[in-house]
Fold each of these.
Amino acid sequence: MGNRSYEPSTVDTRWLGAVMDAAFFLLLGGALARFLLRHPGEPRTPWIIALSLVLAALHLLGPRAGDSGLRPTRRHKAWLALTVVVWMVLVVLAPSFAWCAVPLFYTGLRTLPPRAALALVAVLTVFVVAAQVELSGRFDPNLVLAPPAVAALATAVFLQMERHTARQRFLIDDLLRTRHELAASERREGTLAERQRLSMEIHDTLAQGLSSQRMLLQAADRVWETEPDKARSHVRTAASVAEHNLAEARRFVHDLAPADLAGGEGLDEALRALAARESGADLAVRVHIDGDGRLPQLPDRVRSALLRVAQGALANVREHAGAGSAALTLTVLDDEVVLDVADDGHGFDPAALPDSPDGGRGHGLPAMRARLRALGGTLTVESTPGEGTVLSAAVPLEAPR
């Protein structure tokens, strides 16, 4: 898109250059025709014709008026000096060639630095005035004042256009630079957001599964000699958690969707599967789904977020609460869906949690809040020491159309 921003200016410049070329050859041809009609057979005629051809050839060999970004070089300056000298000789021999200076004004202003260009315009104007006075045969104030006025006006307009073009080019360059910086900033923000999302996904899947396996295997090790049946139960539960964790890892690599939702199951079935997986000898997890009725179809992002919240909450219950039972309650209202996770553990004081990004509990609660906040939802934690904990996650739903 940045290149297209320059196209109109380049097209306009080339169009103006073509007009200047046409004007130059029309003026040159008109002056030559006027001279041949009024002064046929004079000794100077061959010189006039030869110099006219040389001037036309120089114009064709010089830099094109439509070339953008033209920087004066020694070759350009030498070409311009030779062109002006040939034109001056022509004007001295035949004053009718004076008006060929108009395209030379434009070429000089484009080729030379400002001061040198103004000096050239002044010299060309003097020659034009002298030629017009000589052609008229008498002194005419209008012929003396009009050419300088026209030259001054044309020069002022050209310089103003050049300044405007320079400002426009600067603004376009600045806009393109700003767009590139904005795109780079958006990419950085997207990368950071994706890193945070991946961090939460890893915490809610692999890390929690590994933590559960470790606790189950430690429990099995403690009772391996005294209660082998209970130890084998812990090992079987750890194996089940490992199998599910493997499915989560594969799903995580594939598209980061929860494995419990991969087969198109609803959130209620996913919560029941989670409860069955987390239930064991030391923790019983129950599920209550809005009166056990069939849930309406929830958006995929809402289902995934609430399931992750339930996984994180049960991981905290198993690791920190010391609870014997926990309950998952899912309620769908007209404008929001609410998931409550309650346990009968020893509880804690929410206000006493360390004021840190992870709240003193890894990525658990902050990850849940961030996940729900992305959906416009909220997370509420109610707990009292010795009386258990209730975690409530609410996500708004779009109004039905």
Amino acid sequence: MEKIQNQKHTKETLYYSISRMLERASYYGFRALVVLYMVGETLNMERTEALTIYGWLVGSLVFSQIIGGLFGDLLIGNKKTIIIGGIIQAIGAFSLCIPSTTGLYLGLFLVVLGSGFFTPNIISNFGKTYLNKTKLLDSGFTIFYLAINLGSFLGILLIGYLGETYGYNIGFVISGILMLISIIPIILSKEKGMDEIEKNEFPIGKRILNILIAFIVVGLFWGFYELSSIRTFDLQLQLSEISTLGIPNHLWQSINSIFILPISIIAIILWTYFYSSQFFKLMLGFVFGVISFGILILIPEVPTEQHTVTYLISLLFLAISEIHIAPIIHSILTKYSNPKYLAILISLAFLPTRLISLIFGLFNDKLYDNPMLGLKIGIAGMVVVGIGLIGYVWWNKKTTYNTV
């Protein structure tokens, strides 16, 4: 580890993080209500139809983000695209208050389009604020990731509760209002000009290799994460019924987020003052992932109340794993890309994750019958990727030493 000197976070970090937190609160709050709204008295849809529409909503975000990245980098600029995206997403939330399928489809389309404009461009602009102090990139994006998790947690809690208690329209209106408020910090923020950014000095071959490795490795992580989630959710349901720890039922679904919050804060403090390579962090992420899955596999298929603590320890290690991987992908893309096309690259980073998840999803039927199999595949896969990252970190150190 190397001590970081003369590099500090700025008020732009706060502005972008608050904006992203409010946008995620709006988006996840809306998502918590939309299926319930579709199957409710107003639209009275079949549950299967509602879940199919929901699946299309989530899946189409990948493509809308590519459109948003192209608009931001090539046509109207990143900051304008963020603001326009926020307004479109807010209108989408308000449109859901129209009690008809027309209002539903219009609202969903606008939310998807607005989120696609907003997401890659705010990530891109946030990353650019750190390009003259790249040793703080990991810490900065961990602050950003903390804001995302905090926003999604509060959005589900607040909008979900108000929507179910006082009516779905109230929830959708609050979602839209939060979205409009999220634009204010962006308007107040200063956009980093290309002339203010130090030129990327890394050889083109190394930049391409690092970006490709990050794409594949992070996609595989979320694929293995999804494979294990069948067993994780199964245990969650069983333990929530027999546990005597007094954890409310609705909090069982958010335990991972609850762990992520304090771990993020620890990582932010540590990585603000001490620097280690991004690929070393990715390697540690897979090591902690193997430990988490290894602990899970010790729990028998039918757990007892005593296994609750074991399950929580596994989730703790999984949260540590996630913090070493999820923010770091954007940190690597920011560091090694051409900043002119950073939003486009960030939008493309969602494709490998989605593709790998779809491939792994083909085996879900077999995994539902044998949840332990997904866990074993996840452990084996993470071990292989972890060993590969150890080799890459060692090779990087060796080549750096030889060129000094």
Amino acid sequence: MAAAAHVLVFPFPVQGHINCMLHFATALVGAGVHVTFLHTEHNLRRLGGRASASSPAGSPRLRFLSIPDGLPDDHRRSVADLLELYKSLAAEAMGPYRALLTPSPTTGSRAADVGVDPTGGFPPVTCLVADGLLPWAFHAAEELGVPAIAFRTASACSLLLFELGELPFPAGGDLDESVRGVPGMESLLRRRDLPSLCRRPNETDDVDPALRVLVKLSAHSGKARALILNTTASLEQSALAHIAPRMRDLFAVGPLHAMSPAASCSSLLREDDGCTAWLDCQADRSVVYASLGSLATISRDQFTELFSGLVAAGYPFLWVLRPDMVEASQDAALQEAARGAGGSKARIVAWAPQRDVLRHCAEGCFLTHAGWNSTLEAVVEGVPTVCWPFSADQQINSRFVGAVWRTGLDMKDVCNRAVVEKTVREAMESAEIRRSAQALAQQVRRDVAVGGSSATEFDRLVKFIKKLSTSSAVLGQ
């Protein structure tokens, strides 16, 4: 009898990475695979009972375990601290992580003493799918005889950029100069479409340490047994074609949130449960939804310009104002002031059920940071977007939205209330943008449906994992 496939899914412990890798995990469970989803202890405590609620109904094949990240519980774990989190996790989690993969002398299975039944009725771990930002996890797994697959949560075009782009570019250069060295994007990308950490403030500044890490990690992905990307050929065909020869195997299986057999509750922040009722009271396509994601921080001046532009545009709007989003502000006072300034047309919340908001008939456009999860969620629902990117792959994603797919407008490098007002109005009123958004949504939905490119690739991936699992079980005997 063939060994049961049991995949350990290990995301980098921030919201955006957890989201799409949990959708992937639940899709695997739907395909009959056992999955252990690995959180940090800090994040699993934040999720509480909501983590177990993520398991597809009636399935015992998904469980949640945790390892330490080495940081105190009151540490902010903000976007400015990601490099510290990266280093601390690698230093502190290795022992407990290896224990999850190591055969137990008493049970014969790979398990860890993590405060629960070490096996939980699960078969041994036979395959690792780890975030591409965790190369040490790949090395440890392969050393222990567990085949490892890389999962990159960003767009394919950003991965290709980090591998081949001229990074960083010189200080003082023209931001509209074309970027060379990225095949298929020679006439598309400008320097302003690269991640902000590629910009040197002056000639004497060294390369940003985070940029060094990202470039190194992008090159490392090719060493895994395969690379999984949360995308589809309809969105990024050229980038995928240029990435594939650099990998041992490549699977484009997205958008995963549209393929998951059950909605997954992965939010580290409490969602406001009154959003839907408020939207129900608004006219169709009348609401602007504004959210800058789970990590972005902005200045008080930037907040004022964005907020004032939304008010001036004149549409009802739902604004996600995280408690830690605006620098040097008193959270409660700022939220109260925003509610007053927005009047009856504004609803201000700390966090929203974004997928539910985007699919609501009242949703007219999405003012977004253009993170890949948010970009894909808007694409699937056919919602026009206004992009104000912040970091990582967001600059290049926003360029694709505005210049390639033409499903929205790219507002990068501008934070002016008059521009915000004008851009939001155009996104809400442009019939051309809405037609493009809806046409792309229809194509992507075909991709994830039975027989579509992503669905076919996912089936191939499940077979690949089961084959690796059989080999892993033989080696582990």
Amino acid sequence: MARWDGTETAAGPAGDPGTADGEARWFRVLLHAGFFLLLGSSLTRFLMRHTGDGIAPWVVALSAVLAALYVAEPAIGDERRHRHLWLGACAAVWVALVLLAPSFAWCSIPLFYLGLRHLRPPAAGVLVGLLTVVSVTAQLRLAGRFEFDLLLAPPAVAAICVAVFVRMDEQTRRQRELIADLVRTRRELAATERREGTLAERQRLSMEIHDSLAQGLSSQRMLLQAADRTWRSDPATAHRHVRAAGEIAERNLTEARRFVHDLAPADLAGGGGLDEALRTLARRESTAGLAVRCHIEGVPPRRVPDRVQSALLRIAQGALANVREHAAARTAALTLTYLDDQVVLDVADDGRGFDPAAVRADGGVRGHGLPAIRTRTDQLGGTLTVESAPGEGTVLSAAVPLPAV
């Protein structure tokens, strides 16, 4: 359906409630009701004053034809040529009616709207001007003398109708553009959320793999290398290393299965909670050559959420993996401290240490360990502090707030 700017829309006929040409339904109903009210009142006025007039049957017939044409608007379809023929027929019948009975000039108001609606601006302006001239002529004929107000009133009414239509059409166009922008924005937002979700899931998977499977594989490699070195000189020790590597492989398999099903870490599955999981981790790391002590200070003021327990255990695993692979330390200590509003995990070692400022300067690209720990802490709304210096060991502290009761 044509709009005032001449563009086409994918709308149905004007009488269709599902049309998308922009007018509000109430306005269309009011316009249609006004047309038939004007047509009926003009016909009634004519018949009351010209009962025995010979042109009365013609006026009645033309009124019926105009009403039928108006009602037939939904059936004309979207073909431009059909719309133009239909509009021309309506205008011709109306002109004939006005020539026979000038009181029908008031029916031009709905025809203004039809012309503006179905024609491009130049043609619509010509039609509105023609209808206005016919209306002025009809009113002057009806008055029987020249009256200045009759010369100005129809053009004023036409100008008001055009202004109202153009204003409504402009608002409709802006609303349509706004809706299109909103739909496009929603699609872009959904695409962005999908991308962010994909990246977050990739990051989660990389951290889980680093903190579970990769650590286990690293421990196995170290144990097997140790077994290979002592295989001939100390078979018992070598056998102990191989057995420990087998136990780590079994735990890795359990972790992998739980990892696939997105379950909590295996060390938390036994029901002993975070305290027992950290003690188990310390004992396991001690069998791999790094002496790890575990200290628990205080008691939890409230139940620690599973998400926090899982993250703190992964932080401890990642920190010990860094100690084992990079620090060349002999001992390490895990300290879990429960405070009133937070829980603090400290991981200290006596290794070679490093410069934290240098790590921040290169973007933390020393592998997945420290960035993964920082990400986990940030996701819980906590803070991560790393204190270290070359030759002085490292202390990593992750403080995570506990949710209020």
